[in-house]
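Q: What does the assembly look like in three dimensions?
Context provided by user:
Components: two
Sequences:
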Amino acid sequence: QTVVTQEPSFSVSPGGTVTLTCGLSSGSVSTSDYPSWYRQTPGQAPRTLIYNTNTRSSGVPDRFSGSILGNKAALTITGAQADDESDYYCMLYMGSGISMFGGGTKLTVL
Amino acid sequence: EVVLVETGGSLIQPGGSLRLSCAASGFTVSSNYMGWVRQAPGKGLEWVSLIYIGGNTYYGDSVKGRFTISRDNSKNTAHLQMNSLRAEDTAVYYCARGKYCGSGCVYFDYWGQGALVTVSS
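A: Here is the predicted structure of the complete assembly.
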């Protein structure tokens, strides 16, 4: 069965830039998989950041951007801030009405 | 303002049934896609179920045949009926509004705060 893959953890310095990726255990990710990205802090509901690969959700600052890099979807955060420390999840459309989340990336800002 | 409020979470014995409700305000459930996503303790998000505007329903493999998504347009509410519950169904269940992204794809744009379901004897 296909699995959506993400880095388990990542760290970035305050003010730095970080790129998180979202891949498939078999095959490449493309815009036809309609990648979306969500962030979640402990005890809180997820918040939508990006949909359709690179469209920011309402109210999301332009420090967050989405793209396809090579064979993966990517979420880039520029000018990282302390409150960007969260879990980040990607979701890919698998077809036939079904989507799948990746395992999430725990981002540390230090 | 879009608000989603889940209710119905509780402690239930294995093999039991439970129905979660998601009361929506700020938009009309019947004109939107509605979904459920769950998160087991200390784990990541898991896509559970989705109902299209036209009424078609979809389920993740782990709940197919046991869970049923529905909506009550008169109450502007979505539901998740969960039968034959197992310990591994223990999770916070989030209700979310869906938006069409193309070719059958739906992403989630608004989320509720979640309802805890604990399956244990």
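Follow-up: The radius of gyration of chain A is 13 Å.
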